[in-house]
C-alpha cells in the first residue's frame, strides 16, 4: 500500500519552524549568568568557567564584569559595590525572568552586599564560590602581599580605623581575639551581618530574601579562605574553634535572613577537598557537582 505521508525532504519546510521554536525555547530557558571576580584577578581568570557554562548550557549569556580588576580590587568594598551595581542593573533590566550571580572569593561579599542593598534585584540563584562570607583571619600569601610587615594577630591595628577601611581586605577582616575593635572599626561586614544595628537592616533583610537559592561552595584545602568554613558562614570563636553557620549569632538572630532562607530549604552547601583557592573556577568537577544544576 502506498504511504500517504510526504518524503522527509518535503516535510522539512513544515518542521523547520517547529525546530527553530524548540531551539529558542531551549536557549531562552537559561537565565543570564553574571560573574564577579575576586581579589587580585579579573575577567581573564574566568574564561574557562565561561566555557564550562557554554558547553553544558549552550546559548547562556555569560558576563564577567570588567571592573576593579587586579590591584584595583583593593579599593574599598562599598565603592566597588556601587560600581558593580551600575554594571549589573543594566543586565537585570534585560532579563525579566531573572539572573544568576556567580561570585568568587572577595566577589562573593560584593554580591552579598548587592543583593542586600538592591530593593528591585531579580537574582534567582546566588552562588558564593569560596568566599569569606563570615570573614577572614589567617596568615596567607594574600595578607603578606597587602600588609607585608604584619601578621594576622596584629593586622587589627591597621584594619579597624578609617584608613584601614579603605583597603578591601580590611572590610572583612574578622579578628576573633579583638571583637570590640572589629564591631567598632569595621564598616562593611558588621553592617551586612547586622552585628552593628543600622536603620536599613529590615530593608536589607527583605532584599536578601528575594533570592531563590543560595549555594555555598568551599573546601578544607583552599589555602586562602581562613577558616575555610567561612565559605559556609562558619567562623572562629575567641579560642579559634569553629562555630558552624547554624550556631552563629547572626544566624540564630536571623539578622539578615540567613535562618529564614535555610528554613525555606533554599541554602545548599558543597564541599570539595583537594581544590586550591585559585582552582575553584577552573575545575570542571566542581562546576558539574556544585554549580551546573543551579544555572538553568
Provide structural commentary.
- It is a single chain.
- With 296 residues, the protein is α/β, with parallel strands linked by helices.
- Helix content is 36%, strand content 12%.
- It is built from twelve helices and eight strands.
- The protein has helices spanning 8-28, 47-56, 77-93, 106-117, 141-146, 156-159, 179-185, 189-193, 201-208, 249-252, 258-263, 284-291; strands spanning 33-36, 62-64, 99-104, 123-129, 213-218, 235-236, 242-243, 267-271.
- The strands form two sheets. It has a six-stranded parallel sheet with strand order 2-1-3-4-5-8, sandwiched between helices.
- Strand 6 and strand 7 (242-243) form a beta hairpin.
- The longest helix has 21 residues, at 8-28.
Summary, kept brief:
This protein has 296 residues and is α/β, with parallel strands linked by helices. It has twelve helices and eight strands.
